[in-house]
Amino acid sequence: MFDRLRTWAHGNMPTRETFEQNRFLRPIAHRVLRPDLWRFHRRSVARGVALGVFVGVIVPVAQTLFAALLSLPARANVPVAAVTTFITNPLTTPPIWAFSWWIGRGVMRLMGDPRVAAAIERTGDVGWLDWALHDVGPALGIGLLIVSIVGAALGYVVASFGWRCWIGTKWTHRKQGRC
Q1: pLDDT in tens, 17-38
Q2: How far is CA 88 from the centre of its chain?
Q3: Are 41 and 160 spatial neighbours (Cβ–Cβ below 8 Å)?
């Protein structure tokens, strides 16, 4: 299963050449094409996963571009950061936003508050835009920030642990002479 996933990821990851040929990235190509940003090692992959999850949740559009650009100062793996942004897609974005809104409401102590019910009932009176900006917007923004930070931290831990297990398995196979 991991071989199929690795083959798929290898075939679909952006390469250094695609960035070299992009006319918009040409002014910063010398920074984007640094070899240490394209090597797969434990820390850069974990940073790339964390950055990709963070950007994928918090940025609504052009996520891959933002992840690639933010991976420069973070010294994260560019292909991993770009691919990990696809954690949000048309199927996963609505549940993530609903969960973020729920978390944001809880953080803002609006859960069970009578003002929430009044705000929902006011929708017809005030207009949906006012309701979205003043009642839903702050809770969604706070929730998205919390979900993206927690998701990035979990992604970093899972990637680091997964990398360590993968290397441990390779060492065990090598010790047994299977490799």
Answers
A1: 777 777 877 777 777 777 777 7
A2: 8
A3: no
